[in-house]
Amino acid sequence: APAALSARLTLAAENAILCPTTFGQLAIAEYLRTYDWYQQVKEYRGMYAERGQAMQAALEKYMPMCTWNKPRGGFYTWVKLPGGLNAHEMLPRAVKNLVAYVSGTAFFADGQGNDHMRLSFCYPTPERITEGVRRLGEVISQENDLVQMFGVDDSSPQATK
Description:
Layout: H1 3-18, H2 22-34, H3 37-62, E1 67-68, E2 76-80, H4 87-96, E3 102-103, E4 116-120, H5 126-150
Antiparallel strand pairs: 1-2, 2-4, 3-4
Helix pairs in contact: 3-5
């Protein structure tokens, strides 16, 4: 947005966030007073725990060539690819196989992270998580086979991206 418009939009957003209307505050207070939101939080925690467990089980089954973290909270698993694989360059082939992820390069300012990917387990059902990891495991296996067959030149510009 143009600078003049951006400044005004920023002020409007700050006003809406920092100074909510009395009606809005009363509506939220009534919701919190009358609705069993704590039970909803418990249900969501159980649902997300189940999805996280499905992700871990699928990774163990379909991506044993990779390593990953076991999150104690949140919605994401951080996966490290086998040597020579590039998550950013592999993404189009994964999407063609109907699965997507965020390349690790999105989380580094200095170009690192090409050998990592972030997988989300917050939205899909456990069954879809398992299927997605299976599809992604196929792509990684194919990419890994190519690297094993042809090797990787660590001095090339592509290897250092």
